[in-house]
Amino acid sequence: MMNTMMRPSYPLDLVAPFKAELTNAGFQELLTAEEVDKTLAEKGTTLVVINSVCGCAARNARPAAIDAIHNEKKPDRIMTVFAGYDVEAIATVRKHLLPYPPSSPAIALFKDGELVQMIERRHIEGRPAEMISAALKGAFDEFC
Prior knowledge:
The protein has 144 residues and is an alpha/beta fold.
């Protein structure tokens, strides 16, 4: 059950179009701690996009992730969680991302429950979506 102190920072009407950009491309939302833990424990590969309201999510992270999943090799599962809105899920994802500090947007690739690739905001901000997509495709070719 969600802690009542954990409330979304943003209203749904603000985040809905940003969420839809990924879900319309086939990404599944992780909304609870249980969903995060269950999904990341599964065998195989899981891509998790930590979505955000910021401009670098719109210009760089979301377009890169959407482009990358069209690679010949791709993760078994493509998931998303929204920072500042999916409060319980994001807190749990961030536990799985340790020792990396909280970062949004961010893109993480897990294999058999282990983090194998992390693209933090500092690797997203100011870089073209094509460059980020190429890095993701390289990780998919290696781990998927």
